[in-house]
Amino acid sequence: MSYTQLTREQRYQIYSLLKMGINQSQIAKNIGVHKSTISRELRRNKGLRGYRPKQAHQKALERRDKAKQRISKTEWELIDQKIKKDWSPEQITNKFRSLYGIRISHEWIYQHIREDKQQGGELYQHLRHPKKYRKRAGNGDQRGKIPNKTSIEERPEEAENRERIGDWEADTIIGKGKNGAVVTLVDRKSRFLKMGLVERRTKEAVKEKIIHLLSTYPVHTLTFDNGKEFAAHEEIAEALNANVYFAHPYASWERGTNENTNGLIRQYIPKGTDFTKLTSEDMSFIENRLNYRPRKCIEFDQPMLFLKSHCCT
User: Fold this and answer.
1) For residues 275 and 197, is the Cβ–Cβ distance under 8 A?
2) Which of the two residues, 34 and 230, has the higher pLDDT score?
3) Residue 264 contacts by C-beta under 8 Å, 6 or more apart in sequence?
4) Residue 210: which of 228, 229, 225 has the closest Cα?
5) Could you tell me the end-to-end alpha-carbon distance of the chain, in angstroms, rounded to an integer?
6) Does 37 score more than 80 pLDDT?
7) Would you kindly state where each structural domain of the chain is located, as residue ranges?
8) Are 150 and 246 within 8 A, CB to CB?
9) Residue 132 predicted with pLDDT over 60
10) What global pTM score does this model have?
11) What is the side-by-side strand order in the sheet with 221-224?
């Protein structure tokens, strides 16, 4: 069984699933790799403080770069020849192993093609879909750029490890026909929920709603996805005296607490609901139902009571 090279986003997903107590076999199924890949990843890339995705990715890159040095200049020239004959990286990987005994990952070859393109080379034109060719493992969010973002990789350990009250994850749930939205905010440690309606999912409306919902609660950090409704993050951070971080694009597991809570909210607001018919009273009703529901992840405590017992403000 060959070892699948993992992306940075997959390593963050592994970390999140491990924190949830998911076993290696289930983790492998969740991210679409063989269980031996997960086993080897944890064995090779753990640090003294356990498995941490940023450190694991750095270790893997260093190991890969060291291994790539074993491929000589002459061998890279031979690889270039095959690319120019329209061989795919996968075809080169397999044939070079059987014909020449050269072991090289197809991902290395894709990286080599990327670097060649950045330097003005034309190797990428020999790929099957050169116009669609892009950096693998996610090359940025296509939903629009948000200026001055700070990556979730820089979020402090206290937030990462759920050590305190006041580290929030945020999201929006969209109504039928995109008419209206619900802003949801969940505290990572207590699972305490705040939610509120906005008529339009604009950055100004979402900013004002977040500030209003959290104005009486401790706020150390907020973690957003890359939706443009969070583009006013700097104003939110200033108003709440907090630090704001952004998950990687399309990595919903990095905000798993919020994603799971949104799933619970759907019990009361199923898909297809006309949000224009919802009221602030509906929001309060759902909040109370979920905040007083015992939760297994906090040893069947209730989020509202857990928050009160752990919060000193």
Assistant:
1) yes
2) 230
3) 290, 293
4) 229
5) 54
6) yes
7) 8-68, 73-126, 161-310
8) yes
9) no
10) 0.58
11) 193-198, 181-187, 167-174, 221-224, 243-246
Condensed to tens digits (0 to 9), the pLDDT of residues 263-290 reads 999 999 998 899 999 999 999 999 999 9
Beta pairing, strands 167-174 & 221-224: parallel
Comparing 266 with 5, the larger pLDDT belongs to 266
Of 160, 185, 181, whose CA–CA distance to 171 is shortest?
A: 185
3-state secondary structure the chain: CCCCCCCHHHHHHHHHHHHCCCCHHHHHHHHCCCHHHHHHHHHHHCECCECCHHHHHHHHHHHHHHHHCCCCHHHHHHHHHHHHCCCCHHHHHHHHHHHHCCCCCHHHHHHHHHHHHHCCCCHHHHCCCCCCCCCCCCCCCCCCCCCCCCEHHHCCHHHHCCCCCCEEEEEEEECHHHCCEEEEEEECCCCCEEEEEECCCCHHHHHHHHHHHHCCCCCCEEEECCCHHHCCHHHHHHHHCCEEEECCCCCHHHHHHHHHHHHHHCCCCCCCCCHHHCCHHHHHHHHHHHHCCCEHHHCCECHHHHHHHHCCC
Q: Is the pLDDT of residue 107 over 60?
A: yes
Q: Do 195 and 182 contact (CB within 8 A), yes or no?
A: yes
Which tops the pLDDT comparison, 99 or 189? 189
**Cβ–Cβ under 8 Å, residues 183 and 236:** no
Higher pLDDT pick, 100 / 210: 210
pLDDT tens for each residue of 214-262: 999 999 999 999 999 999 999 999 999 999 999 887 777 888 899 999 9
Q: Which fold has domain 161-310?
A: Nucleotidyltransferase; domain 5 (3.30.420)
In sign, the C-alpha dihedral spanning 79, 116, 135, 52 is positive
The pLDDT, as a whole number, for residue 67 is 56
- What is the spatial distance between Cα 272 and Cα 177, in angstroms, rounded to a whole number? 8
Which of 17-21, 38-42, 113-117, 190-194 is most confident? Answer: 190-194
